[in-house]
Amino acid sequence: MADAIADTRRLFTKPQNLNDAYGPPSNFLEIDVSNPETVGVGRGRYTTYEVRLKTNLPIFKLKESCVRRRYSDFEWLRAELERESKVVVPPLPGKALFRQLPFRGDDGIFDDSFIEERRQGLEQFLNKVAGHPLAQNERCLHMFLQDESVDKNYTPSKIRQA
Amino acid sequence: MSFFGFGQSADIDIVLNDAETRKKAEHKSEDGRKDKYFLFYDGETVSGKVNVTLKYPGKRLEHNGIKIEFVGQIELYYDRGNHHEFVSLVKDLARPGELTQSQTFDFEFTHVEKPYESYTGQNVKLRYFLRATVSRRLNDISKELDIVVHTLSTYPELNSSIKMEVGIEDCLHIEFEYNKSKYHLKDVIVGKIYFLLVRIKIRHMEIDIIKRETTGTGPNVYHENDTIAKYEIMDGAPVRGESIPIRLFLAGYEMTPTMRDINKKFSVRYYLNLVLIDEEERRYFKQQEITLWRKGDIVRKSMSHQAAIASQRFEGSSHPEKRAHTSPLCSECMCRDSAKTSA
């Protein structure tokens, strides 16, 4: 057969619905970790962070939510996800145990720059995890992000959509 | 070569009769070097002359016979000692005796069957060569001439498109389509990716061509994957209803025809890997096999009748999925038991 020029014309495509093209995308998910506040007195002090979520994904019950969480809540979430899901969970920002030792020149774990570093790491962690299709099926993630408080005695389960 | 430095020796030279007119083809050797060799097709006759030139004129060369062989063999790198010969022809050129002067011998292997294409891969090599041997009591003198064989096919009668819907439930649904399931080596892959549901943040999409060389049988099967090409088809975030075109020219890549279970020793198969990457570097992919075949050049007058018949043979059939059905899309990067690395 003689060398024919290959037909490289595009395959037929359906024209896109203008609402789909210019409307809000179906993948809107924004998570911010902000407003660190140190609560308590003396050795019982700890820092909480505001976790604010905005989304249009149907898997999230609330399209907007705002909760306060502390570092150990994040650790709990990470452990739950590792155990319950097949996701390779990204690391949290460091525990910084050395900062909890006495006789430091700075404020230890309540140092402003440390809290800011940690805040950024926690925000990155949540954005990575909340966007994962498999992690989105875990009850623990939704409880962490949208329930008033984290119930560590909960029963782990998967979210099923109707 | 002799022990006492006085013995006679000879140089052997193999020359093909059609060396002037026959085309040469480039072929990569094991160490990656590209050399040119005479190109043959199935059914063609291999004929030529063997020149035996005495090193020391005037001295006799005693020998136990002179012969020429045409060999097609498969060599597995992990088992170098064992050559699997699938073609082995021999012609005796001279009975045991002696040569008093340099001599030329004619030979012809008529309409030789060359069922497989020459292939040099990561773990296996298939080659054809002529070997002329002057047998002697202590050590033989021999010379090899490698040739390259290409297997040709004609346009397949049946060449349906590949069209499939894949995705992750409630997260990502796409329909991909490739215009054919069998492509020749200078063909163009024309296709499209249509987004039905996009609930993840995609930032990039590419098509990779993967070559998989399989050697061994049963429990000792070994796959060697090699990514031949990575071709970006989308940069940015798609939404529902969007259609991304694909136009991938194969001529720019070094590929061989698909080889299935060659002499029950090895296979070389090609896959298109559609890869989507999201904002957090997670990779979602769907692999699909395609069949590659070698198209013959415009038939030239010098092509022998046998070779023309041989080029009518068909590449093996594949079973393209014509019906659209949803099958799972693999999400790899954050899955604990996946050991794949992103490129």
Automatic annotation (TrEMBL), chain A:
Protein name per the record: Sorting nexin-3
InterPro entries for the chain: PX_dom, PX_dom_sf, PX_SNX3_Vert, Sorting_Nexin
Molecular function, one GO term: phosphatidylinositol-3-phosphate binding
One GO CC annotation: phagocytic vesicle
Keywords: Acetylation, Cytoplasmic vesicle, Endosome, Isopeptide bond, Lipid-binding, Methylation, Phosphoprotein, Protein transport, Transport, Ubl conjugation
Pfam families per UniProt: PX (PF00787)
Entry's Gene Ontology BP terms: endocytic recycling; erythrocyte differentiation; heme biosynthetic process; hemoglobin biosynthetic process; late endosome to Golgi transport; protein transport; regulation of protein metabolic process; regulation of protein transport
PROSITE patterns to which the protein is assigned, alphabetical: PX (PS50195)
Protein localization: Cytoplasmic vesicle, Phagosome; Early endosome
TrEMBL record, chain B:
A Pfam family matched in the record: Vps26
GO biological process, one term: intracellular protein transport
UniProt entry keywords in alphabetical sequence: Protein transport, Transport
Protein family membership: Belongs to the VPS26 family.
Protein name as annotated: VPS26, retromer complex component B
Lineage: Eukaryota, Metazoa, Chordata, Craniata, Vertebrata
